[in-house]
Design goal:
mainly beta; three-stranded antiparallel sheet; two-stranded antiparallel ribbon; 30% strand; globular
């Protein structure tokens, strides 16, 4: 599926949106507010597929992260936490797939006053 040719408009994450999570503060002082990555939300193959996904509470999103640096670190997403599924002690799940290139995922388990645990997962595009 070529999302660009289908006219899907992405949400755009700008550099200055990320100022709280950028490591290289000296670099940031002189940087321009450039586009960092693109978020395509609630994608589907067609209307029937979209209705079926909505009926089952599913979404298919793609985040496109161009290869570039933010000072001394690679571009990264702002990150987020998922809420608990009502009536459980588990958060809503998320599935990650690398469509091109490679990615490092940092997963954090929050605690009341900070982070309880952190893991790093490295993944490259799977060839089929």
């Amino acid at each position: 599926m070529d999302i660009i040719s289908k006219g899907v408009k992405p949400g755009i994450r700008m550099l200055f949106d990320m100022k709280d999570v950028i490591y290289d503060h000296d670099w940031l002082k002189s940087a321009e507010n450039v586009e960092l990555y693109y978020m395509y939300r609630e994608l589907s193959l067609g209307k029937k597929d979209a209705l079926l996904m909505k009926e089952h509470g599913l979404r298919y999103d793609i985040t496109v992260i161009p290869p570039r640096m933010m000072g001394c670190e690679f571009v990264k997403t702002a990150g987020h936490y998922h809420p608990l599924v009502p009536g459980t002690k588990s958060t809503y799940p998320e599935i990650y797939e690398v469509l091109g290139g490679e990615a490092n995922y940092i997963m954090q388990k929050p605690d009341n006053d900070g982070i309880e645990d952190v893991i790093l997962i490295k993944q490259a595009k799977v060839t089929r």
